[in-house]
Amino acid sequence: MGLGDQDAVLDFAVKCLLPAGTSAHQTDDGECTIFYYKYQRPQRLYVKREEVELDVQLPDGSSIADINAKIVHANAIFFLENGKIYRAEFNNTETLTASFVRDRLEGETITYGGMCSRVRDGKKFAYRLCDEPEKDALIIDVPRERLENLELRGIHRRKAIYLNTRAGREPSAMAIFDNVIVLQCLLSSTPFMRDSSRYIYITNQHCVFVLDSVYGLFMPLLSCGDTPIRSIVSVIEDVITVRGRNDGVECLMTAQLPERYVSQK
């Protein structure tokens, strides 16, 4: 089947309503904790357990004030606030205090989606907010002109994933170096990817594109029907969780993925 063949329509069910101006970010641990981020001021980062909302506090006991970037990795969320990077993990305790990870590095570029890059000794390095820059960074050995109009949107299985911001409607993927892949597609949010899965999930609000990173090919699209999607929150086993709108109301929704869209490795 080709890109134009519609494989299935995802049947979404509402999981919970979301307050206005709030995004959701789900961890990959056994608890599958959801961190809620209220990006409208005053900002909040919190988890919910039944009817209780537990706010993330900084190590000095102060509240979140201005998050500039964030990314989920394993069982924690990493975020940038006032030039410092923190890590927050929920352990079913009565308090939720973030731990300090490191200061922002000199010359370090950090995107809102938690992608980092910097140039040292004439070489460009790319890594995630959750990575150790000296240990985990990828060397992007690509001429500067080949990265024009490209945005770093992820790192998947030791490959930097860039987005062509001037792409057409038909999605495609192209390797321009051993560890650099360029996605050509229109999307509404950061692609969802985890190293534990070969698949990269992308939405343009109306459908979900799934890239098989092993073969570099997009699978037949998954339609979202009449459900507009703003972002993909998680893909855990055969369940995809998204942030979208149902009857005009912002909410989290889930749907079961067809078997062939569930990665086995």
Which SSEs are present, and which pair or pack?
Blueprint: E1 8-9, E2 13-17, E3 22-26, E4 34-38, E5 44-49, E6 52-57, E7 67-73, E8 76-81, E9 84-88, E10 96-97, E11 99-103, E12 109-110, E13 115-120, E14 123-128, H1 133-136, E15 138-139, E16 150-156, E17 159-164, E18 172-177, E19 180-184, E20 192-193, E21 199-203, E22 207-212, E23 217-218, E24 222-223, E25 229-236, E26 239-246, E27 249-256
Parallel strand pairs: 1-24, 6-10, 17-19
Antiparallel strand pairs: 2-27, 3-4, 4-5, 5-6, 7-8, 8-9, 9-11, 12-13, 13-14, 14-15, 16-17, 18-19, 20-21, 21-22, 22-23, 22-24, 25-26, 26-27
Report the major sheet. 6 strands, mixed
Number of helices: 1
Mean pLDDT: 91
Rg, nearest Å: 18 Å
Shape: globular
Distance between the termini: 22 Å
- The number of distinct β-strands equals 27
Secondary-structure content class: mainly beta
Please trace the helix and strand order, writing H or E for each element: EEEEEEEEEEEEEEHEEEEEEEEEEEEE
Helical content stands at: under 10%
Please explain how this structure is put together.
- The structure is a single chain.
- This protein has 1 helix and 27 strands.
- The protein has one helix spanning 133-136, and strands at 8-9, 13-17, 22-26, 34-38, 44-49, 52-57, 67-73, 76-81, 84-88, 96-97, 99-103, 109-110, 115-120, 123-128, 138-139, 150-156, 159-164, 172-177, 180-184, 192-193, 199-203, 207-212, 217-218, 222-223, 229-236, 239-246, 249-256.
- Strands 1, 20, 21, 22, 23 and 24 form a 6-stranded mixed sheet that branches. A 5-stranded mixed sheet has the order 3-4-5-6-10, with no helix packed on it.
- The chain has 265 residues and is mainly β.
